[in-house]
């Protein structure tokens, strides 16, 4: 029997979450409930007739994460924080749903799940390109108005190109995932090469024309993020330098024209937008002070949150806590801030952050275990790890993880690592070696 998680219904629900991760809670929450129910059935063996074996490191990581959330919730309840219920539903509810989903992933599910995510991201990116192109007069207006209304579409061309679209935020995960997949060697766990390339191009173009600096930044940084993930995951015994280094012919041909192309590129609006994205990150890190309003606001917000944490350093202010100074960034939710990691420290305190860090270390150990289990596992681990890392980087200044619909980016990487560590790469999924020419002749 096929697992319900990768059934037509299960994949359709996942694709919907990717396509519209926020708003329309009357649809999103039932969809998330269906995902959790189908995954739980697979986990218990009700659909596949074989129960799922879980790695102890995964179980302990989930328990540590749950403990941190419950402690912060208890602190919030004691202090009667105004945003406790909303934050509890986001963090505990999201952890419950996506941890079940991740645990139910099996090695034979990986390619279907990645293909569904990539295809949904491709439709989303194509929609964004068509929408912006139509508003700028480059392309005909062919998108049904009802679809744009459902996505909450809005366009502002007063300062470059900036749009509002509910699904746009999914590209912060799916964009790097598609780019990393397109740059990776062929692998039986990854979607078709042509699909990855098409979606990578569409997602990159969509991020540029949409005017979202964080998304643009992580997509541009994808090759570097891939290298970092590889260095962390690749077993030491495989980190050997090749004895015979061959320079591809395309490198020799491209080098003479690389400098003129680079000189032309830095004069384009695209290069300007990429540069602005880097400036935003440097502002946040304090490396460069540009004096922009957004940088000043982030600096002010960081100081307020650190000051609030200093008042409750060990257990934090609790989930849904607000700053005693009265400082806010949202009229509707006084407990919500853009600087997520500063807010984690403020809400969870040092104890909660230590528990979260221990959970992260266990997941990293699980991913390294998966990489060591089979050499063919490394490419797909790098792809999903790059997507998760991109989300974590962008989340520093943009509250992506405040929405349960974005948690799939982390859960996908964790679930793939767990599946490959536990299942030990089933032989049917191992890439088949190509026959040698001499073998064909015989």
Automatic annotation (TrEMBL):
The chain crosses the membrane at residues 29-46, 58-78, 84-104, 116-143, 163-182, 194-210, 216-233, 245-266, 345-366, 378-396. It comes from the Bacteria. InterPro entries: WaaL-like. Signal peptide: none annotated. Keywords: Membrane, Transmembrane, Transmembrane helix. PANTHER family: LIPOPOLYSACCHARIDE BIOSYNTHESIS PROTEIN PA4999-RELATED, TEICHURONIC ACID BIOSYNTHESIS PROTEIN TUAE. This is Uncharacterized protein. It comes from Gulosibacter sediminis.
